[in-house]
Design brief:
Layout: E1 9-11, H1 30-38, E2 49-51, E3 54-58, H2 59-74, H3 84-101
Antiparallel strand pairs: 1-3, 2-3
């Protein structure tokens, strides 16, 4: 969460000026920053705060956003949790395989 008492606030519309240019030399479009705040990227959302009709983020929030995205691309354990239905199907499949192989049921132990 953006802490207005100790972070450097910037209007979200100015955030692209604080980011490096894209490989083609153009600046990131401001709509991408608004998308990061509303929908996020791969489950990571850019922190923001709305004050007086203006949406703000902070330089520190941009840093955390970039770090979280970098960690998610490196760490496969950071994937979002699977829905319960997927987990149940995986467990059912594991029980069927164990039964076919003649292994004891893990739930019975």
């Amino acid at each position: 969460m953006v802490d207005i008492s100790c972070e450097t606030l910037i209007p979200l519309r100015d955030a692209p000026r604080h980011l490096p240019n894209r490989p083609n030399g153009k600046r990131l479009h401001v709509s991408a920053c608004y998308r990061w705040v509303t929908r996020g990227v791969r489950g990571v959302v850019l922190e923001s705060i709305r004050l007086g009709g203006t949406t703000y983020t902070s330089l520190e929030a941009l840093q955390r956003f970039g770090e979280r995205l970098s960690l998610r691309s490196v760490d496969p354990q950071s994937d979002p949790p699977q829905p319960a239905s997927c987990v149940r199907r995986i467990e059912q499949a594991a029980r069927r395989v164990a039964h076919k192989l003649g292994l004891p049921d893990a739930d019975a132990q």
